[in-house]
Amino acid sequence: MRLKSIHLGFDENSLTVYKAIANKHRLEILRLLSVEPHNVNELAEKLNLPFSTTATNVKKLEEANLISTELVPGRGTQKVNAKNLDRIIIDLFEKEKTEENNKKIIVDMPIGEYFDCCVKPHCGIVGENDYIGLQDDPRSFYDPFRKKAQLLFMRDGYVEYRFQNKVPYGATVKEIEVSAELCSEAPNHKLDWPSDITVWINNVELGTWTSPGDFGGRRGYLTPKWWLTNYTQYGLLKRFKVNEKGSYLDGTKLNNAIMIDDLRIKEYPFISLKIGIKEDAINKGGFNLFGNQFGNYEQGLLMSITIQ
To answer: What UniProt keywords apply to this chain's record, in alphabetical order (predicted)?
Structure first.
């Protein structure tokens, strides 16, 4: 079952939620309701607070749409409070303002829909409920059920995706951005396990991110409960962007001369995205790639193209 979440930013609606949760009693109410519904009397008793104070806090959470109240039959009819959300996420990346005459094409590619791959053990593909194929067997990456993958990992190699080129004829491509949740690949997990993970678009190398480690020990927000916590649990969301001014990783300009025209997007019916470990990488620590039901982010490979 997919978790219900809300993303907060810098707008007025987000400010309402920030104000609602900036109180230890209201946070405790949310924690209690995350376990099961309660009425106000039950909440007041567990919080050791007066009924009136508890009712006021419940109302604040209702106004922020974090919880809901409904009438249910009991000893007579009683009001019962229940959670509306499982997670509250704060997005520190402020949405960029796009020029009025620009438009965006956004595609979220499932991680199992790769076009090509080169895989070396330790490796595997994981679905929502079980492994797909055999662990440490590169042949599993050609299993038809790979399209249902929610996590794929390898010690060395790459995966390549081909996005349909949806840029209208005659349009000008101003910018392209790709994002993915990634981390290193160590036995089980290891926080200190650096790996140089490189991204290419249309066979043009954009840059390399050195992942500090393979993250585990605590469950990822989306990672299913059957997956053991001593295995890889989540990654970091990395954003590679190219425009007329250059190429960027998480907003920091990369030390290369790659610009949007170098990607020759208009020349192909597809846009190739390749993620992998270079043969001459200094830190060959492999990589994990997360789908929209594994890790911390509800996305696969997200590509955003700004056109004019």
So the answer is: DNA-binding
